Amino acid sequence: MNPIETAGRAxxxxxxxxFAHYAASLMLAKGDPFHALKIFEARQPLSRxxxxxxxxxxxxxxxxxxxxxxxxxxxxxxxxxFVEFLRPMTILGRMTGFRKPxxxxxxxxxxxxxxxxxxGQNATAPASSMAFDTMTFRPAKIGGVVAVTEELASSSDPxxxxxxxxxxxxxxxxxxxxxFCDPALAEVxxxxxxxxxxxxxxxxxTGTTTSAFRDDFKALCNLxxxxxxxPFLIMTPETAISLATLGDxxxxxxxxxxxxxxxxxxxxxxxGNVPADANSPGDGIIILCDAxxxxxxxxxxxxxxxxxALLEMSSAPDSxxxxxxxxxxxxxxxxxxxxxxxxxxxxxxxxxxxxxxxxVRYGS
Length: 364
What we know:
Layout: H1 3-28, H2 33-43, H3 50-56, H4 76-86, E1 106-112, E2 131-136, E3 141-149, H5 150-154, H6 158-181, E4 202-204, H7 210-222, E5 231-235, H8 237-244, E6 256-257, E7 260-263, E8 266-270, E9 284-290, E10 294-306, E11 310-311, E12 328-329, E13 335-348, E14 354-360
Parallel strand pairs: 4-14, 5-8
Antiparallel strand pairs: 1-2, 3-13, 5-9, 6-7, 7-8, 9-14, 10-13, 11-12
């Protein structure tokens, strides 16, 4: 094990834990950053991040404030570490090679390329033209409320902060993975991007055997029209295990398992958040994408907290609330709520960068 990498992971985990301690302090302070600072100082007097928290109590600007700059990401050192702690838990965090355009900038995008050919002596060179359109890569944000008991937020036990850190990370990871992969999710203007699989070409699995998978894998690869610069396969751990137990004599599946691996040299990423086949809920899907042809930009983490709030305890809340919406009083139930927001957006650069294999049930 590389001692430098181990030390780096320990440093990131420590900063992410400090972020969780601050989140708990903010919940106890009911969202008041100045009170949260006092609580953090009292509970973590030896923390080397006290100065970071002190600086964060200065009111941050917003993108709509004409007299103050856009937020400079308060708590940047430890919130960035929380993002790094979060990344290995997500599909996005285990992929590489994305193109990273800046938010809110218009950029040209080629819709057709140029052509070249061999030239003989004194031969005429072919001429071709490129076609362009423009795109604006607008920011989008993932957000949700995590409710914890006052006892957990108030606890000085180090394990309490670990639980809060894990809960915050799991909530963001699950949602971002599902939003990234679910073929049913279309873009909602000024709210959310479409999943990378939305309207992507698909091919259906032809069977459950090793030979069927070989044919299906070829068909899936044929749907990708890019250069396979940074290809990745995405599937559930269950699908990966099923493939690993098929007994493939060609060794195509010798390097795959529950934690990933590769197929034909293409890295496999496994996640329990990959959705089932919408047309056959008992079956799965396998996603093939070229990350080099996907735009992706990620921002930091923002926090807010409250105790005196009514909360609909649902992962799909009514918007807006109706007369039948069941609301829970955080105060009455001795709970605290923390609102976490993460800025992130993705978009395939062109068609043919993503394809989906449906009806997957190998080994069944």
